[in-house]
Write a structure and sequence with these properties.
This protein is α/β, with parallel strands linked by helices and 454 residues long. 43% of the residues lie in helices and 15% in strands. The protein has 14 helices and 12 strands. The strands form 2 sheets. Strands 9-8-7-6-10-11-12 form a 7-stranded mixed β-sheet, sandwiched between helices. α10 links the parallel β11 and β12. α2 crosses α14, α7 crosses α8 and α13 packs across α14. It starts with 20 loop residues before the first helix and ends with a helix. The structure holds nicotinamide-adenine-dinucleotide.
Length: 454
């Protein structure tokens, strides 16, 4: 079994052998300047450790042999590229870009591309592996992949982000393709970044919208894709709520990370009548026991305001967000933010994992002992890849569905995944996370066996 030891040292002190010195210094300066992540706020256990632990636990239960574990744990292909770019300070900054194709037994590789100073090859490996299990749990015909560039995209001019996006696509396009590997947005990459990547790929291969998903509507993006991950989380919660004695209209919730996933989850929860009582982003946290208006907060941020300056809530230290009493806590920022240093402080009934790998194994154990019901990332945040799948299907046919059709189809898939995983959990007397990994791994192993890979 994987080691569950985790510590809470500052992330900025980790070694980064694959980053340029300038990029390491930038990452450290960013952690210093923004306090993100702060010591004790995010655990030092890596995303790779987290996914490996859950993978191993499920393999133990399935009785998967050691040789097959190697096949299904190790990525199929890993590509690292150099992205040098001259920034307004006059210096050439060298970033590393990664595309990792984890497992393609069930279909073309599929996964987002993250731009963040803390990206490293292990993080991308972890996220790629998680995609393999996630697409299998959702039952969409894809394998798992992930990409990333360790650049501080949040602080760069759009013109420089565009250069990085195009350069990255130029360097990895040989292993991508609409029937090989299809990219998508993730942290700090959005529809605009996908448009640049599609355009760059098109220069070499002709117009190929199906090469990336999460594109703008004007460029064959799908209605409903932008909201899909947050909406999918809410579909899962609605499915679970009656069994937990919760009614969405009377639910209070807290959101950690108010970007794409967090803000959409919050706005859709609010549509159901639920009340947001705390929220954070990289700038800090606010709370409001009478309710923070999710729509007004979103507009405030879109107009360039800082979350901490929003008038509808009172500021509190970011690390205190975790202990706000609520029914549902929605982590929607980075990995490892719920760890053994803060899990015991949580005062929620449900954790709805919008982020990838937000909960370390030690925290998971503490929360289980506190009877907190966790709807894990590997199923809860699959809505993004499900609607990416719809976008790809539409692109291959140059056809378009309306938003209601997309949302209805998303709901059908998310509800089915919840029922399949929760009935497996009941049958085996295990939690949802372990059951989801079991279901995902079984499906991938079966596909690999049927193809004759193993
Ligand atoms: P995003 O860049 O749109 O938003 C990230 C948010 O997290 C921002 O508001 C940022 O300020 C905040 N943040 C960063 N550090 C923080 C900290 N220390 N404390 C609190 N907030 C912090 O990214 P996103 O696309 O919303 O992705 C969020 C998470 O969801 C990631 O883990 C991502 O892998 C996962 N995810 C995203 C999708 C998708 O479709 N976008 C799909 C599945 C999973």
């Amino acid at each position: 079994m994987a080691n569950t030891e985790t510590s809470t040292d500052a992330v900025g002190e980790r070694e980064h052998p694959d980053k340029s010195q300038l990029a390491v210094e930038e990452a450290q300066a960013e952690a210093e300047a923004t306090g993100t992540p702060k010591p004790g706020q995010r655990a030092e256990v890596s995303n790779l450790d987290i996914v490996h632990f859950y993978f191993n636990a499920a393999c133990d239960r399935l009785g998967l042999s050691d040789d097959l574990r190697v096949v299904f744990w190790a990525p199929y292909r890993e590509v690292t590229v150099q992205i040098p770019i001259r920034l307004p300070d006059g210096k050439v900054h060298v970033y590393s870009g990664y595309r990792i194709q984890h497992n393609g037994a069930r279909g073309p590789y599929k996964g987002g591309i993250r731009f963040h100073p803390e990206v490293d090859i292990d993080e991308v490996r972890a996220l790629a592996s998680l995609m393999t299990w996630k697409t299998a749990v959702a039952g969409v015909p894809y394998g798992g992949a992930k990409g990333g560039v360790n650049c501080p995209a949040g602080r760069l001019d759009p013109v420089d982000v565009q250069k990085i996006a195009r350069s990255f696509m130029d360097k990895v396009e040989k292993i991508l393709g609409p029937t090989r590997d299809i990219a998508a947005p993730d942290v700090n990459t959005n529809a605009q970044v996908m448009a640049w990547m599609m355009d760059e790929y098109g220069k070499l291969h002709g117009h190929t919208p199906a090469i990336v998903t999460g594109k703008p509507i004007a460029l064959e993006g799908s209605y409903g894709r932008e909201a899909a991950t947050g909406r999918g989380c809410v579909y899962m919660f609605r499915e679970a709520a009656p069994h937990l004695g919760l009614s969405p209209a009377d639910t209070t919730f807290v959101v950690q990370g108010y970007g794409n996933v967090g803000s959409w989850a919050a706005r859709i929860m609010q549509q159901l009548g639920a009340k947001m009582v705390g929220v954070s982003d990289a700038s800090g946290a606010i709370r409001g026991d009478a309710g923070i208006d999710a729509n007004a907060l979103h507009d405030h941020i879109v107009q360039g305001g800082r979350l901490t300056e929003f008038e509808g809530g009172e500021q509190l230290p970011a690390s205190d967000l975790i202990s706000i009493p609520c029914d549902v806590f929605i982590p929607a920022a980075l990995g490892g933010m719920i760890h053994e240093g803060n899990a015991a402080d949580m005062q929620c009934k449900v954790i709805l994992e919008g982020a990838n790998s937000p909960t370390t194994p030690m925290a998971d154990q503490i929360l289980r002992e506190k009877d907190v019901y966790i709807i894990p990332d590997v199923m809860a945040n699959a809505g993004g890849v499900v609607v990416s799948y719809f976008e790809w299907v539409q692109n291959l046919q140059h056809f378009r569905w309306d938003e209601r059709e997309v949302n209805d189809k998303l709901g059908t898939i998310m509800r089915r995944a919840y029922r399949e995983v929760s009935s497996r959990a009941r049958e085996e007397g295990i939690d949802l996370r372990e059951a989801a990994y079991l279901v995902g791994i079984e499906r991938v192993v079966e596909a690999a066996r049927t193809r004759g890979y193993v």
